[in-house]
Amino acid sequence: xxxxxxxxxxxxxxxxxxxxxxxxxxxxxxxxxxxxxxxxxxxxxxxxxxxxxxxxxxxxxxxxxxxxxxxxxxxxxxxxxxxxxxxxxxxxxxxxxxxxxxxxxxxxxxxxxxxxxxxxxxxxxxxxxxxxxxxxxxxxxxxxxxxxxxxxxxxxxxxxxxxxxxxxxxxxxxxxxxxxxxxxxxxxxxxxxxxxxxxxxxxxxxxxxxxxxxxxxxxxxxxxxxxxxxxxxxxxxxxxxxxxxxxxxxxxxxxxxxxxxxxxxxxxxxxxxxxxxxxxxxxxxxxxxxxxxxxxxxxxxxxxxxxxxxxxxxxxxxxxxxxxxxxxxxxxxxxxxxxxxxxxxxxxxxxxxxxxxxxxxxxxxxxxxxxxxxxxxxxxxxxxxxxxxxxxxxxxxxxxxxxxxxxxxxxxxxxxxxxxxxxxxxxxxxxxxxxxxxxxxxxxxxxxxxxxxxxxxxxxxxxxxxxxxxxxxxxxxxxxxxxxxxxxxxxxxxxxxxxxxxxxxxxxxxxxxxxxxxxxxxxxxxxxxxxxxxxxxxxxxxxxxxxxxxxxxxxxxxxxxxxxxxxxxxxxxxxxxxxxxxxxxxxxxxxxxxxxxxxxxxxxxxxxxxxxxxxxxxxxxxxxxxxxxxxxxxxxxxxxxxxxxxxxxxxxxxxxxxxxxxxxxxxxxxxxxxxxxxxxxxxxxxxxxxxxxxxxxxxxxxxxxxxxxxxxxxxxx
Length: 717
What we know:
This protein is 40% helix and 16% strand. It is globular, with a radius of gyration of 31 Å.
């Protein structure tokens, strides 16, 4: 113990000295603008000083997270930021630098000249603990510092993992920029964190060619984007644009729901051609002769000349609006050739251009297209069946300002924005997370943001669900840039999920994703999976009780709840006086967080309570994958609250009525009891007790021959 205390004291002295040099540099930078000869130079120096100050990291941040002792006797301290002394000597190496590579690359099998790695656990710049890994003596590839880090309490945001990056992860972080790199990994492999650290690495290595605003990170939803939002700033890389895939499109009011079949059609790549044809169809045909009032007199232009100008504009390699401007310029040139006078901004020329090539907006064109069967049929051509055209048709709002859109409209609006206005903001590198679930139209929206073809694609086929659930990365890569080669690299080790929880979830892989190999999990959790079988009426209450017990123990809790159980669980939370965060509102960070299986992807919690797995499986065509996601969100404790099988492996089935009618023999007294429990639970959560008898009377009346539920309250109620 004394030796360890002495080691900590010696290291703390080094940390304190390095912090003083960091503070000195910070003070020098603060004074730098005042030394400028004039205001212009001062502004330049201020920008430099601000950037250099950010590169030093926070004033209360630990100067280092690790130390490398080489076999040669050389010692290097590794941190998030470079620190030098007053003479320019390096005290702490930036983790991006080649000199720090040994911290990440050294393993038992390949020590890379490293004798010892010392990891520091700090509060601010105060060392609380240190962990030594002597590579020649350990028997496992996973060090004690990593295991200790994995047991730290979670919060509502992802932390950087720079202090615990493993060799396989580091190889992906420092992979060459010019490629489409697919990082595939199961739950807890660190794939999202690796992708973000790869951004930091690329920004450092290519700092003369690209800066933080040149990088785009796309996540699946707002909750996930907020969750990862602090990783890059913690690494000193502020200014990277982060957004969910829906925010790539123009911002419009959402709220429209659609059948799954329509969602699927709208996501297909052939919709891009339909939209292009619909836009092209808005271009008109000139009259045999066009008569214009210019400068107080009429000018007649033969229709053939106008048609030639129109054809030239059509053929130009410009977006719709650019070709529209080109047409107007050509019409002005025709008038000038006949009159000898430049018509300038003559209204008649503008009116003709508008009639032949009307101005369009993405929202206006899509609203008019989807609201017209004739326009849909003309744009669909032979690529869509009559039934698909009918499915796409919908009645729009009376005014465009009142139109409500669906999430699947967003990639269509983005496509139209590109067709009408041309390329928008493009980036030197693009990261897309949970890419396995994106539709072809969403992938097109991501692809057009790439200026170089350099992408990092993150996901897990075993967690691919929804309308675009996939079993192969080829289906994703087909819609991404092909300028550079694509490389699919799996991460093998699961660091976050404990063995007990993964052992509960792993049997689902045989049903959910037979081609995906199970993870190699590196650590044990604090407890076995808790299974709580209850009656349906007790389901929500027990789930809330378990969640409260974890929250009272100081754990960050996620309650994964299928749609049918959402309202009962919310009611039970409120009845118990528990404040909770809701992922469907983009919230995450309270002691208790209520999330759907779909929203759970990419998130992690100290404790997870999974409610009614059978309903999770039944809620989606790939329901077993959703349950796999739900069961693998924990870093510690896992509880399942259910009325039946906690891990259902069979596909959900619905009993078929017997041929010729009559009672269904598969509907037993047990099913009667379960249904009664379900209806009781719904009634308790939806209506005050004084109305229960009245509700039951209405139900009896509606079930009687010829009966129906009353249309509304009686007069005077």
